[in-house]
Input
Amino acid sequence: MRFGRVLVTMLVDQQRWKEAEPLALRVLAIEDSLKEDSLGRVAAGQLARIYAATGRGERAERYRARGAGVRGR
Output
């Protein structure tokens, strides 16, 4: 799973939002299934950045809150 997080980070840093979004969602789902809260917060933060950059503020807020440790979608 580490490779997936690194790849998402690289795509986000390059502002390749369309490619980063589906991968970040998959990484988050896998990390959720593993009950890895700290890793899930990283993926949620990446999703918040993707959604903010692509003008989807409501989704960005949902994942931003999750990245800060507030559970729920």
